[in-house]
Amino acid sequence: MKFTKRWLPALLLAALATLTTLPGLAAAQVIEKSTVRHGSTEVPVEIARPEGRGPWPPVLYIHAKRGYEDVDREHIRALARDGFLVMAPDWLAANMIERWPDRHVPESEDDVEAALAALLVHPDACRQPVGVVAKSRGPYFAIRLAAKRAADVGPIVSYYGHFQNPNAPEPQQLFSVAPEVRQVRSPVLMLIGDADLELRRHVNGRAFYVLWERGVPVELQMYPLARRAFDFRVDQSPEEKIAARHAAGREREWLRRWMGLGADGRCAVPAPGR
Q1: What are residue 34's DSSP bridge partners?
Q2: How far is it, in rounded angstroms, from Cα 88 to Cα 114?
Q3: In this structure, what are the phi and psi dihedrals at residue 13, rounded to the nearest 5 degrees?
Q4: Of 258, 230, 267, 273, which is closest to residue 156 (Cα–Cα)?
Q5: DSSP single-letter state for residue 153
Q6: What is the mean pLDDT of residues 155-163?
Q7: Within-domain flag for 20
Q8: Bridge partner residues of 220 (DSSP)
Q9: Contact 51, 28 (CB under 8 A)
Q10: Does residue 274 lie within any of the structural domains?
Q11: Which among 151, 120, 143 is positioned nearest to 218, based on CA atoms?
């Protein structure tokens, strides 16, 4: 068959359409944009899902105060490739909060909780407590949720996280942890660089000891020569690139272990009554 120039655009489009539907090529990369509601507020969310058929173990992804960006989309895609159904609420956009807020806005907690509630009943989610991956300000949301909804929140993975109320007075920032650290039962994995800001390292360290003394499963992974945002910063050093790969493996292992997943990463057996 002979093709003329006028057929080429149509042929190219058809080829591209075929590529995007081939198994293993793009299915795990697809991100669905949606919203969840609480009251009169609509919260933008993005959902990444593995290829194939669910149900899949659910993970809530909570972004940092810098905002929800392409680096976050890449992270939820990676979690989807690891077999998780991921929902990421944009808690800044929901309340029209400017990027990099210096103070914590309590109303934004309702936005994150609304995403948790939606994920728990998502038709493609396993009926089990939700794992949480959170960055910087995100882990403060996570421990607040875990203290409030212990039956719904499973293991937490914290990247250089806040374990103190960002609005607390300076002495509390320096010498104590948030009260929720003394309440949560969720297993917590802390990932942080040893070149991160001194205050953040100190608070992570104090939270580690409080959790450990209470018998909560907790591990603190300190990465040598790694700074804040070691996992995605544009000026990553060779050591930080290795730390990012190591952290991704620790994240996957922690979620699978404490969500009770099988060797294939599929759903745990539902608990009675769930």
Answers
A1: 45
A2: 11
A3: -65, -40
A4: 258
A5: E
A6: 97
A7: no
A8: 190
A9: yes
A10: no
A11: 143
Residue 225 located in a structural domain: yes
Q: Where do the DSSP E strands lie in 15-152?
A: 31-38, 41-48, 58-62, 85-89, 130-135
Instruction: Please give the Cα distance from 44 to 42 (Å, whole number).
Output: 7
Instruction: Find the CATH number of the domain harbouring 156.
Output: 3.40.50.1820
Pairwise CA distance, residues 116 & 68, whole Å: 17
- Cα–Cα distances (Å) from 9 to 1, 2, 22, 127, in that order, read 16, 15, 20, 46
Please report which helix (H) or strand (E) contains residue 158, including its range.
Answer: strand 153-159
Does the pTM of the predicted model rise above 0.85? yes
The owner of tokens 């299915």 is 27
Given a cut of 50, whether residue 22 has pLDDT beyond it is no
DSSP 8-class letter at 99: S
- For 75-114, what is each residue's pLDDT tens digit? 999 999 999 999 999 999 877 888 888 889 888 999 999 9
Instruction: Scan for tokens 């300076």, then name that residue.
Output: 170
Contact criterion met (CB below 8 Å) for 142 and 63 = no
CB 231, CB 78: distance < 8 Å: no
